[in-house]
Structure formats: structure tokens, C-alpha cells
Structures
1.
Amino acid sequence: MQRFHCPACASEIWFHNTDCLQCGAGLLWRPEAGGGAFVQTGPDHATCANRAVIRCNWEAMAGQRLCRSCRHTTVVPDLSVPGNDVKWARFETDKRALLALLGALGLPLGDAEGAPSPRFEFRADPMDPRAPRVLTGHADGVITLNIAEADDAERERIRSEMGEPYRSLPGHLRHEVAHHFWQVLVQNDPQRLQDIRAVFGDDRADYREALAAHYRNGPRRDWAQFYVSAYASSHPWEDFAESWAHVLHLLDGIETATAYGLLGPTGLPSNAGALLGVPMKRLAGPWIDLSIALNAVNAAMGHSSFYPFVLRPPVIAKLEAIRALISQAGQGTGGL
């Protein structure tokens, strides 16, 4: 994420702000191809209809009630249930950041008819404890997310129960959107499919059985040598999705660290779109150095690790395959 300044008083603001904390000016994010900018609220800039509900700070599209981000959401939780609005808002805040990043990378965010794609469904578990829980996942361009994970305690409980080193809302979004882009960019392109299979393995392996075996027997013993996470070893689709998520972690993380002067002179570009053109071997070095330093700072403050992953050469090669795919697919597209 870049650093931003109030268009009225030039004080620093953050990507999620609806108002400048210094001068009180109302703020709107206007997404544009490859990026965007903040403007002041006013007669020339319509606010999104969800601003009052979830503090959406994006500008409504011309002739529309909703902004570009909110138009991607097709199902919202029952807002008559106390707390659902807060959980939904937390997911939408991170979804806006995700869409801004995907747009900066030039990835397509519409289907063949121009409708928003992927679509997001934010659902709550049914009140009846005997009824099936909402499962986070992707199916044919629809990303379903269980808003229970917006509760930090619940997400930590699941993380601990699953034996995961890391679980976050941006991580969920970045992982699930990868499954969408597998279908959009890879599935129906014979050459790309062949290239991706050469790196991640044959995705025609039975998916349900692979996941069942993973949860029944655990990951393969040598997973850490070849996969960015234990879950990535369960099936090529999950390896692809986990690797995709980590490419977005690196691009966004390095952009943010550069904006705040945390990396020192690296010779790297300062924005995610340009960083996409840098080979992963080149990006991995500064990222690893930054991760080691921030892991140590977090430990000193009694927090969990900032980035509890090891990027060995086989993993970096997989991240490079994803980076190259996004770079190729993003050429000539307008993104947001």
C-alpha cells in the first residue's frame, strides 16, 4: 500500500479513512485503471450507498448507488443480527484493498459481459447450531466467506485448531481470489495450463480425495522443502492458491515497506504494479531481510511472527511462476 495525503490539508491519511483526522474533510477513494486517488466529498463526487452501513469510502460509480468494490458483493449477512454489520464491514475493508491491488496489477475484474467478477458472498452461520456452517471457498466466480472469521478470537481458535502459523482476512481473500483467477487465466488456455502443471503438478488428481487424505493423514513429511505451507501440499489447486496469495503478500508488503522507508536503498520500484515486473528471486531477498527484522520486532513485543514462512528455492520458483502469469495476464488490461 502507498502512503496517502488529505486532498484538503495534505495531512497523512490511510486507505480506509472516510474522514481526515486532522481537518475533518470527507474523503472518497476514486479507483482508476492501475491505481486511484483520494478526493473530497462534495456535489461532484457521489458517496457509495454503503458508506453509512460499513464505512465504505469509495466513490459511487456514475449513475450507480454503489462503488466498484461494493458492486462485487452480491450477498450480505442479515444486518438485523447484532454484530453482523461490524463483521461484514471488516471483510469489506480488506476486500477494497484487495481489489485496489488487483486493479494496480492490471488483472481483469469483470466478466465477458462487463459485470463485476469475481463476486463475493458474505454469509453468517445459521442460528440453529445443528445446521451446516458456512464454508469459505470459491465456485465458478463466486467467493463465499464466513463472516465469523472477522472475529479475532474465533479466527485464532480456528487457526490453532487447524495448526496453521497464520490466518488473516487478507490471507483468505488473496487465497480464494487465486482460485477464481485459475479459472479465468489458466483453465481454458492450453499453453498456460501446461506451464502451470509443470510447476504445480497435475490438477486432474481427485480434489476431494486429496483434501480428505490431507486432513486424515496430515501433510507429506517433506512439505517444507517444496511448499510455502503445509496446506499447499494437499493438491495442485491449493499449491497454486497459496503461492498466489504469497505473491500478493510480497508485492503489497514490499510496496508498503518502501513507502515507509523500511527497506533502505534496494533499487526496487516503489509501487506494486512496477514490482510485478521484477523477478521473484530479486524480490525475495529484500522481503526475507524485512521479514527477519519484523519477526524479531514482533518477538520483542510479545506478538506472533510477522511472516512465519520460509521461502526456499523451490518455493521461490513457484512464486515466480505466479508472478510471471500475473504479469503476462495484466498486460493490456484496465483492471479497475
2.
Amino acid sequence: MRRARISYCLIAVTLALAGCAQVQKPIDDYIVIGMDEDSTGPGASYSTIAGSTVRATVARINAEGGINGKQVRLVVENDESNPTNTPSIIRKLVDQGASAVILSTGSGSALAAKQISQSTRIVTIAPTALTDSVAGPPGNEFAYMVPNPLAQYADVYCGAFAEQGKKRLGVLADSSPAIAGILGTLEPELRQCIDVVDTSKAAVDTADLTASVSRLLGSDPDVVLVASVGGNFELLAQNTLHRLAPGLQRFSLASIGNQPQSWKLAEHGALDGLVYMGSLSDDNHRTEQTQAWLRTVKGANYSMTAYDAQAYDSVMLLKRAIELAGTHTDPELLNRAMQEIHEVPASFGQAPLTLSFTPDKHIAPDSVCGLVLIAFGADNTPTGPWPQYQPACTTRGSDR
């Protein structure tokens, strides 16, 4: 018994000392990049796509000699797109020696990561988050994001509504935290250009949307926006809208366009006429090059998504920053190097799109034309850029 007490006390002391240990500093012999990947939560449908491409890009960098002659090691944790889990996940990645963290998770979790990136002085970069505040002030000194932000989504949707003469918008949304955060930013912007007549929400795992869609249609919208993380909810929404209101113009977020495995699961013709917010254009040769490379990794028939392109660009932007800083072990130098990245050609968006960071601009796209409206055809596959409206490649809204 005395030995047991001594052993117990030794364990308790060890645990106490471990709890008081200082954060692990980046390792000099190799470069550790952390990734917070939601692989089991509501954002898994898109986070795992980006996460897979992050892994492939790191492997490619290592095969080509690494960064500054050092190999890159990727360490991965999962916050399940639960913002309450994110702070401990980021700290765990920092404790494993990460020099930077890729946030392949939902916007709510990426937003929760911002405070931790500030307190730990570690660069975070989000390849899939859409909420402007993820990389916007306050407290964004070490926080960055790659996609065009939601305020610019609103600009593009509003341009499309005006082009079509639409006046009354109905919104059908899932109740996930990620979509709640997105609508919190998007809806106020949309209300400036169109009358939002109803917002109908349902559980992300619902099996029937007939009542929700019927209630939404009762408000007499002339256009509908589906806001979801994708997966079954998005398919159910599109199938139900197609059945109950086949002539109604439908728009969606990026999710449906970036989940090609789900298209064949839609009812016949259910996606016909749907326009989603894409980020890939057939006029961008860099997109074509990235897809050609991905097909050597993911299979000859792989259809690249915007999540792939933005994940690839996220890793390459970190690589460039480490090269500019000349080190990965000094967080202040690395962060300053991030803010010196200027007009890097993007792998997504229209051909003229470039990516830049400055001390006052932590959202990468230099133009709204990182966004591309894409239309579906009768065979439930995208036909290409929507001919009725596209955003121009100007800097309008790029600093929003």
C-alpha cells in the first residue's frame, strides 16, 4: 500500500509538471505544420477534401526537396467543427512543435482559433472558412484565410438578383453552427439588395424537408438560396424544391459544387438550373495544372473542387512565407513574411486572380473574381460558368 501511495504521488507530480510545461517551440531539424481537420463533424464533407489535398501538397513539397532544405511533417488533430474544442486542439498542435496551423474546419471553429493564434503567436491559415471575421480585425494579427469572404458572396448574389430582376428571396438553411455563422454575416448583406421574405431552418440530419420547403414557398419568393454544409441536407433540399417548385430559380453556397460524389445521388434533373457559388473557372490555366497533378494522386477521373485548389494554395502560401522569412522557428519573422506575400497567381478563381497579404489585409484574394457562378445542367452535372452574370475582375470589395 505504501508503494502504491508513493507511485500515485509520483504520477500526480509528473502530471502536474506536465500541465505547467511551457509550449513546445518549433523544431529546427524539420518543419512541423499542424492541421485542424474536421474529419467526423458536420463540416467533414468539405474539410476532409481540403485535408486530403493538404497531405498531398506536403508530400509533393517533400519530394521536391522540402522548404529551405528541410522536410515538412504534418501533424493532424480533429475539432469536429465544434468551436468549443478548437482552442485545445490548436494548443495541442502548438505543443507538438507546429510553426503554423492550417484550419481545415468550419468557419465557427476557425473563428475560435483566432484568439488562440494571437495568444500563442502562431500563424493560422483557413482554406475553407468563409466568414470575414476569421481573418478580420480585431485580434487577427496571426490569422489568415484564402477564400473570398462572405461579404463578397453577397456582392455577387446581389448582382445576379439584379440582373434577373429578382425581388423576393427565400432562404432554406440547415441548423449547423457553421451555417449559423455564415448566415449571420451573409443575411444582413443580402437584405441591402433584396427583400428576404423568409428563412426556414431544419436539422442537418433531417429526413424530410417537405414541411420546411412548403412553409418557405408560402412566403412567395421569386428566388431561393439554399445554405448548407452539403451532404444529405443539400440533396434533400434540392430534390424537394425541384418537386414542389420546379420553375423557381435556385442558388446555393459552394458546398454542392464541391461534392461531386453527391451529384449522382440527386433525383433525375433535380439540380437542373441550380446556380452555386463556385471558385473554379475554365479560363484559369493554373486550375487546369493543379487538377492534372491531383489526378496523379487521387485518380485519373478525379474532379478537382475549390476546396482542393484553396487547400493547395494555403500550403504553398505558407511555404512562400517560410522561404521569405528564412526560418520557421521565429513566429514573428514568419508572420511578417506572410504579410509580404504579394500578387501570387491563384489556383482558383478567374485567370487574373492573385493572392496577397499585408498588415491590413489578411484575406488573400485581390479581387472578387475568385468567385465564379456555376450552373448545373439537366444531367445533374455543372455545365460551366453561368452565362447570365459573373463578377468582374476588379478590386471592388477585396478589402472588405
3.
Amino acid sequence: MNRTAMGTFETLIIPLLILVLWTLASSFQWVNPYLLPSPGRVFLAACHLAETGELAKHLIVSFKRVLAGFSVTLVIAVPLSFLIYILPVFKRLLRVPLEFLRSVPPISTIPLLILWFGIGEASKMAVIVMASFFPVFLNLMGGLNTIEKEWQELSETLKFNHAEYIRYVLFPGAFPSFLTGIQLGLSYCWRALMGAEMIAAASGLGYLILDSQEMGRIDKVFVGIITLGICGIVLDRVLIKLFNRLIPWKDLEVEHKW
């Protein structure tokens, strides 16, 4: 219990110090109160947004966009990874286009995507796919490339066909890396969506932040930012718990160690 309590205290000490400094800065007006509203004002704004249902509405819209876009990413990235691994000719054909796309920040394509797809959901979905594709694709490819040759030789001995080879050798061998790619991909598409919602949206957390800024409600801006951070932490913790149940032989907590 003492070790657990100490670990909890060490985890919370920096956030608590930040909260204390924030309170002091707003109380003694070290910073313009308009630019840095007090924690109390931010808390009251959060309560108001929660009571009216506005915060939940924007949060649900953003989550739906992320899940829909990430589903498209999985449909594209997973088959393409296996195809490139099994047929190296596709790796040679797609190397340059994929490297080019990986170097282009998704946010930079938003003006073009709006011209192509309008300000509806299609442009936001495209941003999410561009942001989350490479974390999933590259991690899955990395997992496939680390599969031991002995397993491949065993599959040849057992005369597996392509479907059996993928099902019983490739996918289980690359599964831990695939889950890491999902973890990273979701965080990347969440960040990219916020940028898209700030530019072309009528709902979502990104829209809430930008609209609050334009209305001079900096306390609501803080609510939106804090909500993003809390959602990111919760989602990451849930994914780690789920993945450690699926692959108990690999502790994904190491992804957070420095």
C-alpha cells in the first residue's frame, strides 16, 4: 500500500504543482485574468457545459469522427501491409508514393481537402486517415519483418496455403506490433481531427475551442483543452489494459517508459 501510495503521489505531484501555480497566478493577477482565467472560473464553465449537454454533444461528435476515420484506416492499412510483405514487388512500386505522403503533414492538406470534399464529414475523415495510416502501417510492417524464419519454414513444412500462413503465422507474430500501431494511430488521428474541426466544422471539441476563443470565453477554451487531455489519458489507459489482456506475454506499459 505504501509503495502504491508513493507511486500515486509521484504521478500527481506535477499536476498539483501546476494547479497551485495556476491558482496563485490568477489570484495575484500575475497574468491578465482574461488570458488566464482562474481554476474556479474554468470549473464553473465546465459545469455549465456539462449541465446543458453541450460538452457531451461535442465530445460524442469528435469520438464518432475518430472511430469512423480510424476504421477506414484499418481497412486500408492492414491488407496493404500483408500485401506488401507477401509480394515485395508492391513495396518497390509504392515506396516513393508512401514516403512522400508520410512526409506531408495532414493539417497542411485541409484547404485542398475542403476544395475537393467540401466542409462535410468527408474532408475530416480524410484528415484522420492520413494522420493514422502510417502509425498502423509501419508498426504492422515492422512486426511482420521481425517474424522468425523458423516459423516460415515450419509453415512450408506443414504446407500452409496463403490464407493459413497469414492466419496462423503472420498475424499472430505481428499482433503485438499491430496493437502498438493502433495505440499510436488513435492518438495521431485525435490530434489531427482537432485541427480539422477548428477549420471546417460546426460541432466537435475543436469547434468548441475555436468558437469559445472567438466569443472571448477563454474559460471554455480551457475546458475544451482539458477535456482533450483527459480523454487522451483515459483512452490510452483503456487500450493498454485491453492489449495486455490480449497479449499478456508483452507488457505494453513499456511504451510509456523513458
4.
Amino acid sequence: MSTELNTMALSVPQGAGLDGYIQSVNRIPMLTAEKEKALATRLYENSDLDAAKELIMSHLRFVVHVARSYSGYGLPQADLIQEGNIGLMKAVKRFDPSVGVRLVSFAVHWIKAEIHEYVLRNWRVVKVATTKAQRKLFFNLRKMKKRLGWFSQKEVETVANELGVSTKEVLEMETRMSAHDQAFELSSDDDDSKEGSAYSPAMYLEDKRSDLAAEIEAKDYENHTQQKLLGAMSHLDERSQDIVQSRWLSEDKTTLHDLAEKYEVSAERVRQLEQNAMKKLRLAMS
């Protein structure tokens, strides 16, 4: 699809502007079967973008209708509609009028697929469904729950039979859906509240890689190496020290050409000075 079509389909306003958008798309006339087939044929055979635009515009009201059925997930309605519009564009692009079905029947699967992906990405910080079976459970389980409490064993078995999954998978998904996201570490507000009154998951994790003796030894070795390097650097002339510092020890590395300009020599000469200085350092530190 062209950039124009992408912009047109994705520009769903937030807040109060959303009502105006919905009213606008509802005023767009629906297509007859004959008109729809003619437009789809033009797009399919000639890549006619005007035909594609008319097909998309006439079905935006249907995307709004589908998106409303996902309002229970607590996500912005405008975002759900935008994701559905992406699915609509994908469906229009792939629609083959020779199959003999209406575009709406073909597009509904693409629209729902995009909305499903958006819901799974944003409903929780941690994904609750990753496999195909888990996704099926996630969307169907919300529809089948008749009360806010936990399922009874009989209800679990009923859901498992209807969806073709095991009771273990039903219970696992119900647990995931009932859980709440928790910060891995304390926020600054929690940290400053009352000392020792708040805990985060990070506080309960054991770092099995931690070895205090090894850490002290490594730090001591690092300090020793730094002292040896400083001692070796003191035997170099000021220009060589500056070249090594600029080329190897500074966070912002200096190029050979910049140093050549600074000392008014060639870049090759700077490279030679650098190599000689590194040789002296290695000998002094070995």
C-alpha cells in the first residue's frame, strides 16, 4: 500500500476526537457486492490504489465494530482501531475477488489477528500467551468466565473440553490472567518510604556468580595493573603519552588524522609513534 493509504488508515484520533472519527467512518457509504468486486478486480489486476482506498474507506466502520469487542482489555480504543486498520489494509492487499466471497468475510481474520497481537503485547508487561494454544486460551477464557472468582473443577473441565486443551493448561492460563505485573526493582518513591517496609523480587534473587574473594582479587589485580601502566607511561615522552592516551585510554577516541593535524606530522608518522610507544609499554609491564 502507498504511504497515503497508510496515513489515511492509521490516523485515528485519541480522546474526544475519536467520536468524530467514528461518526465520519459511519457516514461513508457501504459498497454493493457488484461495486466491491469491480474495485477489487481493479486492484488485483492493475494495482489501482484509488480502488484500494475506496475499499478500505468503506470498511473502516467494520474495524470500529470489531475493535469495540476488545474494549474489556483496558486498552485505548483508538489504538485497537488503528491496529485493526492495519489488518484491514493487509486484507485488501491480499484479497482475490475471483474466490467469490465478500471482502468483509476475508478481512475479519486479518483485523482480529492484528488486534490480538496488540492486546498480547500491551495487556501486560510480561506476555501471558506465546504459543498458538495459549493465545486461543487467552481470548476464549475471558469470554467463558461467568464470575470474577476462580473456576471450579467442573468449569475447568468444561472449558478444557470445549477448547480442546488439557485442564492443566486452563488452570495455568487462568493463573497468568489473574496475576498482576510487579516491578522487578523498587521505584524511587518506594525506596524512600519506610526503610525495610517494601520489598521487590530483585531482593530475593541469589547471585550465584558472586564470589567475594574473587571480586576482591580481581579489583586488586586491576589496581595493580593500573599502577604498572601509569609507571610505564611515565617513561614515555609527552607526545607519545598523549597519543596513547588519546588513542587507547580516552572514552572519545582520537583519529590518526586529528593527531597528525595537532602535531603537524603525517598520519603515518603518528601510527609509527603509537606502535613504538605500545612496544615500550609492553616491555615495561612484562
